[in-house]
UniProtKB/TrEMBL annotation:
Pfam family, one: AMP-binding
Source superkingdom: Eukaryota
Coiled coil: none
Catalytically driven reaction(s): a medium-chain fatty acid + ATP + CoA = a medium-chain fatty acyl-CoA + AMP + diphosphate
Gene3D superfamilies the record matches: N-terminal domain of ligase-like
Organism of this sequence: Hypotaenidia okinawae
Protein's name according to its UniProt entry: medium-chain acyl-CoA ligase
One biological process term in Gene Ontology: acyl-CoA metabolic process
Record keywords: ATP-binding, Fatty acid metabolism, Ligase, Lipid metabolism, Nucleotide-binding
UniProt domain AMP-dependent synthetase/ligase: residue ranges: 75-154
Length: 156
Protein backbone atom coordinates (compact mmCIF):
# COMPACT_ATOMS: atom_id res chain seq x y z
CA UNK A 1 0.00 0.00 0.00
CA UNK A 2 2.77 2.44 0.90
CA UNK A 3 4.56 1.64 -2.32
CA UNK A 4 1.46 2.54 -4.34
CA UNK A 5 1.20 5.87 -2.52
CA UNK A 6 4.84 6.68 -3.25
CA UNK A 7 4.45 5.71 -6.91
CA UNK A 8 1.34 7.91 -7.19
CA UNK A 9 3.04 10.89 -5.55
CA UNK A 10 5.93 10.71 -8.03
CA UNK A 11 3.50 11.48 -10.85
CA UNK A 12 2.29 14.71 -9.21
CA UNK A 13 4.39 17.80 -9.98
CA UNK A 14 5.53 19.75 -6.97
CA UNK A 15 3.54 22.74 -5.84
CA UNK A 16 6.52 24.95 -6.66
CA UNK A 17 6.52 23.89 -10.30
CA UNK A 18 2.74 24.33 -10.58
CA UNK A 19 2.72 27.86 -9.21
CA UNK A 20 6.09 29.09 -10.49
CA UNK A 21 4.61 30.96 -13.49
CA UNK A 22 2.28 32.83 -11.15
CA UNK A 23 4.96 33.90 -8.67
CA UNK A 24 5.27 37.57 -7.86
CA UNK A 25 6.36 39.50 -4.76
CA UNK A 26 4.03 39.25 -1.78
CA UNK A 27 1.97 42.44 -1.49
CA UNK A 28 1.50 43.95 1.94
CA UNK A 29 -0.64 47.05 2.09
CA UNK A 30 -0.09 47.65 -1.62
CA UNK A 31 3.69 47.67 -1.13
CA UNK A 32 6.12 44.99 -2.22
CA UNK A 33 7.38 42.75 0.57
CA UNK A 34 10.72 42.42 -1.20
CA UNK A 35 11.39 46.12 -0.60
CA UNK A 36 10.99 45.58 3.15
CA UNK A 37 12.57 42.11 3.42
CA UNK A 38 15.64 43.42 5.22
CA UNK A 39 13.61 45.43 7.73
CA UNK A 40 12.47 44.11 11.05
CA UNK A 41 8.83 43.87 12.06
CA UNK A 42 9.27 46.83 14.40
CA UNK A 43 10.75 48.98 11.62
CA UNK A 44 7.88 48.14 9.28
CA UNK A 45 5.34 48.78 12.06
CA UNK A 46 6.84 52.22 12.74
CA UNK A 47 6.68 53.18 9.05
CA UNK A 48 3.17 51.91 8.42
CA UNK A 49 0.59 54.69 8.51
CA UNK A 50 -2.81 53.44 7.37
CA UNK A 51 -5.35 55.94 6.10
CA UNK A 52 -8.21 55.68 8.57
CA UNK A 53 -11.32 57.71 7.76
CA UNK A 54 -12.96 59.63 10.57
CA UNK A 55 -16.26 57.86 9.88
CA UNK A 56 -16.64 54.49 8.19
CA UNK A 57 -19.84 52.64 7.41
CA UNK A 58 -19.39 49.35 5.57
CA UNK A 59 -22.83 49.51 3.94
CA UNK A 60 -22.27 53.01 2.61
CA UNK A 61 -18.53 52.99 1.94
CA UNK A 62 -18.22 49.50 0.46
CA UNK A 63 -21.58 48.09 -0.64
CA UNK A 64 -22.92 51.36 -2.07
CA UNK A 65 -19.62 51.90 -3.89
CA UNK A 66 -19.96 48.45 -5.46
CA UNK A 67 -23.50 49.39 -6.47
CA UNK A 68 -22.12 52.40 -8.36
CA UNK A 69 -19.47 50.26 -10.05
CA UNK A 70 -22.15 47.70 -10.95
CA UNK A 71 -24.39 50.41 -12.48
CA UNK A 72 -21.46 51.77 -14.51
CA UNK A 73 -20.92 48.30 -15.96
CA UNK A 74 -17.36 48.13 -14.62
CA UNK A 75 -18.01 45.02 -12.54
CA UNK A 76 -18.84 41.46 -13.49
CA UNK A 77 -22.41 40.34 -12.93
CA UNK A 78 -21.60 38.32 -9.81
CA UNK A 79 -24.32 38.83 -7.20
CA UNK A 80 -23.75 40.54 -3.88
CA UNK A 81 -25.66 37.70 -2.24
CA UNK A 82 -26.23 34.25 -3.65
CA UNK A 83 -28.10 31.97 -1.27
CA UNK A 84 -29.08 28.37 -1.97
CA UNK A 85 -31.17 26.27 0.42
CA UNK A 86 -31.09 22.50 0.86
CA UNK A 87 -33.80 22.00 -1.77
CA UNK A 88 -31.83 23.96 -4.38
CA UNK A 89 -33.97 27.11 -4.23
CA UNK A 90 -31.86 30.19 -4.96
CA UNK A 91 -31.98 33.85 -4.07
CA UNK A 92 -29.64 36.20 -5.92
CA UNK A 93 -29.40 39.88 -5.07
CA UNK A 94 -27.29 42.33 -7.02
CA UNK A 95 -25.52 45.07 -5.10
CA UNK A 96 -28.25 47.47 -6.21
CA UNK A 97 -31.00 45.15 -4.92
CA UNK A 98 -29.19 44.53 -1.63
CA UNK A 99 -28.71 48.27 -1.21
CA UNK A 100 -32.34 49.10 -1.91
CA UNK A 101 -33.72 46.36 0.33
CA UNK A 102 -31.30 47.17 3.16
CA UNK A 103 -32.23 50.88 3.01
CA UNK A 104 -35.90 49.91 3.35
CA UNK A 105 -35.09 47.64 6.30
CA UNK A 106 -32.95 50.40 7.84
CA UNK A 107 -35.92 52.78 7.59
CA UNK A 108 -38.09 50.25 9.41
CA UNK A 109 -35.48 49.90 12.16
CA UNK A 110 -35.00 53.64 12.64
CA UNK A 111 -38.48 55.00 11.89
CA UNK A 112 -41.06 52.34 12.75
CA UNK A 113 -39.04 50.74 15.54
CA UNK A 114 -37.50 53.99 16.78
CA UNK A 115 -34.02 52.49 17.07
CA UNK A 116 -31.05 54.84 17.19
CA UNK A 117 -27.31 54.53 16.68
CA UNK A 118 -25.86 52.27 19.36
CA UNK A 119 -29.13 50.48 20.15
CA UNK A 120 -28.95 46.71 20.10
CA UNK A 121 -30.92 44.45 17.77
CA UNK A 122 -31.23 40.79 18.78
CA UNK A 123 -31.87 38.85 15.59
CA UNK A 124 -33.10 35.28 15.88
CA UNK A 125 -33.42 33.87 12.38
CA UNK A 126 -31.91 30.94 10.53
CA UNK A 127 -29.27 31.90 7.99
CA UNK A 128 -31.72 32.99 5.30
CA UNK A 129 -31.28 35.99 2.97
CA UNK A 130 -33.32 38.18 5.32
CA UNK A 131 -30.72 37.56 8.05
CA UNK A 132 -28.09 39.18 5.85
CA UNK A 133 -30.51 41.96 4.91
CA UNK A 134 -31.08 42.92 8.55
CA UNK A 135 -27.33 42.65 9.15
CA UNK A 136 -26.65 45.28 6.45
CA UNK A 137 -29.60 47.40 7.67
CA UNK A 138 -28.04 47.46 11.14
CA UNK A 139 -24.77 48.63 9.60
CA UNK A 140 -26.61 51.44 7.83
CA UNK A 141 -28.36 52.65 10.98
CA UNK A 142 -25.43 52.20 13.34
CA UNK A 143 -27.37 49.78 15.48
CA UNK A 144 -25.51 46.82 16.95
CA UNK A 145 -26.57 43.44 15.60
CA UNK A 146 -26.60 40.63 18.14
CA UNK A 147 -26.97 37.38 16.19
CA UNK A 148 -28.96 34.90 18.24
CA UNK A 149 -29.32 31.20 17.69
CA UNK A 150 -32.74 29.75 17.03
CA UNK A 151 -32.24 27.68 20.16
CA UNK A 152 -32.62 30.74 22.40
CA UNK A 153 -35.73 30.77 24.54
CA UNK A 154 -37.56 33.54 26.41
CA UNK A 155 -35.79 32.42 29.58
CA UNK A 156 -32.36 33.04 27.97
Amino acid sequence: MALAAVHFSLKIPSAVSLWAPLRRPLQLCSRSYAAHASLSYEAIKQQYRPEVPEYFNFARDVLDRWTEVEKEGKKSKNPALWWVDGAGEEVRWSFEELGELSRKAANVLSDACGLQRGDRVLLILPRVPEWWLVNVACMRTGTVLIPGTQQLTARD
